[in-house]
Amino acid sequence: MSFLLTRLPPFAADYSGVASALHDLGGLVVIHDASGCTGSYTGYDEPRWFAGRASVFCSGLRELDAIMGNDQKLLDNILRTTRERDYGFVAVVASPVPMLVGFDVDGFASLVEHETGLPALGFATTGFGLYDRGLSAAFLAVAKRFVAEPEAPPAGASLLGASPLDDIGPPTLETLRRVLDRAGLPLVSVWGQESGLAAIEGAAGAAVNLVVAASALPLARFMKRRWGIPFVTGLPLDADGEAGLAAALAAAASGDRSPAERTPARGTGPAGGADHRTVVLIGEQIRMTALRAALRRRQDGSTIRVASFFAWDESLAEPGDCRLADEDRAAGWLASADADLVAGDPLLAALLPDPARARFVALPHRAVSARLDHPAGGRCMADPVGAVRAALDDMPGRTGR
């Protein structure tokens, strides 16, 4: 009951994270469920589902099959599907009912591989974990199974964690390509969308990795241990952010490891003053950390804290930042923060202790509100720095605090 939600909707689940990470890789993704979990992923979590091509197969699990352990039915359906179309691999993704009845995901994946002759991956997702865990698990599984040993000197860069579930879409990818061009680094692969297995297989040949979401940090650290690839974390939200990130990537790729494994150009900004305010940014950790850095570069003297329900890395956190464990503790932390301005997904406004007390800036996060709060071309989506800065400029100074 520690993650009971009474004011917020369920966030995107771990099985959605796995399926999303594998979406563009040309495999058959089998979600073992009674169709509800598959429907949540295809209908709400995955923005590419209605416009792109991907094979997500629902097992159609029924009560009798679960009770009797009738795995042959699922195996027969997978065999028939793989005979009808060419796939690069098969992924078996579990859901709550298979978890409760003790379904052996890894054992079944081995059986699928033996029967189909295709590489098969098993994911023991439960539906109780969040999407970031699914992304991390899928990224690591793909790296360990498909990335080939490099045959040439390292060159270029890969983007790790570019998931649509974290609202990394075509405009952000275009900006990231511009950053790589500025750093003189050709793009090797994108982990999260666009790249197929051929590009992923060559990812070990990159000279540096750019981590754009905290869910990809386990992958970045694995690739550093395995192939010695340094990494930089960050997301460019303004022109100065692009320049700083490009410089950090170029330095890391050339052998200067000092900028790696951190977000460049954090900035500090002046503190205190009559107009001092407390700002809380809630969302994906690397995105919110980049937003904080961009606000500080504009010489804002506010105290800015970052918080997240999702993947969290202490190396990116500052004193006062918070990993939000559950809804109740998040509401308590927000009350103690006594923020003047809170920015995050619109549904998170329900956690504010006094909505009239704090200004709220809506920064939609697909893993939280799915399709509810994603209007095309919305200002907060396109320019979160400008949206928060405008809200701060519009607030009267607070004195005597």
Automatic annotation (TrEMBL):
It comes from the Bacteria. Residues 15-262 form the Nitrogenase/oxidoreductase component domain. Residues 255-274 are annotated as: Disordered. Pfam families: Oxidored_nitro. PANTHER family: NITROGENASE IRON-MOLYBDENUM COFACTOR BIOSYNTHESIS PROTEIN NIFE. This is Nitrogenase component 1. It comes from Rhodoplanes tepidamans (Rhodoplanes cryptolactis).
